[in-house]
Known about the structure:
With 298 residues, this protein is an alpha/beta fold. It has a single domain, classed as TIM Barrel, CATH 3.20.20.410. It has 9 helices and 12 strands. The strands form 3 sheets. The chain has an 8-stranded parallel β-barrel. Strands 1-2 form a two-stranded antiparallel ribbon. Strands 7-8 form a two-stranded antiparallel sheet. Residues 1-32 have low confidence and may be disordered.
Amino acid sequence: MVSIPCYKRARGRIGVKDEENSDGRQEVTATRKAGLIRVGIGGWTFAPWRTTFYPKGLPHARELEYASRQVTAIEINGTFYRTQKPASFAKWRDETPEGFVFSVKAPRYATIRKALGEAGPTIEHFVGSGLAELREKLGPILWQFAPTKRYDASELEAFMKLLPEEIGGRPARHVLEPRHQSFVDAGFIELARRHKCALVFTDSVEYPAFGDVTADFVYARLVRSQSSIATGYPAPALDAWAKVACTFARGSEPKEFARITKSGGRSNPRDVYVFFINGDKERAPAAAVELLARLPKA
Length: 298
């Protein structure tokens, strides 16, 4: 039988501040005034991970159990392609530890369409498919638009009005991922802010990256893992992302992020989600674990 080790890491239940060491270096230390920082991967069923991530001999049925004890969040991608059953969501909830969170990618039938404002029935079907079974482990819902979908203010507003404010009696969080350059528009940023929808920050060279904060949480999808690097990303990049995550969590905005609108300055603490998605995906778990190791301990 394969035992499941639990990675000894903070689950993001921390706040952070920068303090200077005697040698002048900045050190991130824990306080009590910050949002939760969660770091994870996309899905848990990926054949190459049985060589690079999962212990040898681990039954496939226990892969979620193992993965959820190495990272603090997982983005469920299967929901993008097909409807899941309530029993599946309940099973995933029960296989993961306390404090773990799933984000859920909304179905393509709701987002890859000509008229987003007409997606109401599809959204209702998706939300009613069993998301509430995740209970306290339900995190943000990701709505990814087609790369060809252009920004249209009235269409996007109609779509955002369709998004539920609650799921299973709990406040719902929504994050939008536009992938057309026409969304680089101050009007869109203000629209997302008005509807309290977060925007995906991506390090992709193909799609726009939004550094503007539009909700009470921040959501990053990092897609540039490299197979030639054991940790997916080089150490300096992981160090930089740890600093960025902590800056966002305590309510500030990192100077490194370009914005379309003017920074709102310091605000309340925010939750932060960082997912390593795609790129050379076999390295995504290693990148997530390495980033978690760089965060302050609870």
